[in-house]
Amino acid sequence: MRNFKAIFKKQLKDSIANPAVLMNFILFPLVALMMSAFGMPDFYGVPYDIRQIMEAGVPNMAIMMASMFAGMAIIPSVTGFIAEDIEKKSLRFLNMAGLKPAPYLLGIGSVTFFLSILTSIAFGFISGMGGQYFWIFVASLLSGVAASIVLGATIGMLCKNQQAATGLSMPVAMVLGFGPMLATFNENIARILHPLYTQQLNVIADYIQHGGGDVSLWQSFAIMWANVAVLGILFAIVYVKKGLRG
Question: For the whole model, what pTM was predicted?
């Protein structure tokens, strides 16, 4: 518990002192709000049916940006935090002090998760959802955030410095962030991405927009938290190997 508190306080100070990180939690809902209010511009060459889907309602725009937030904002941020610890040799000292993977991951991730709660609630209000659907949407987004935190931490453990962290995390973040949007227009992509947690955000969004239907809500949440569990095991393995090498 003492180790967790120390990591949490350190991470909170680092996050507050980094405006670029804080902007990630503001920018995505702000863009969703603006695009929901003003709609999509009439770009030349964009098929009308795609534009129509994107303008079909406020919930669609908020859901699209929420999926991008879970994939693209969280992973690079967490990866950068851990890569910084590695680059500054902080992680090596923590390993020597006997810090276990769980308190380190919780300490790093809890600050990001707390900030994401505020962002997720903002997305919920922007979407216009009400009642139980509001909380289902927020819970699904936070489940995606949890998976991205663990994935970002695992990627960060594989990096030697922050420059490498950016190069390694961004392609993964873009696939997870843009993938669900592409899956909206292509069933084959949707099937390929089905096991990924960001795609399940789309599945749950479909459940909400259709008031239930044939979508299995519990199955989607199970897939998302299976992602978290598998990634957590992978993080622990990488952490232990890094500790043994250090």
Answer: 0.85
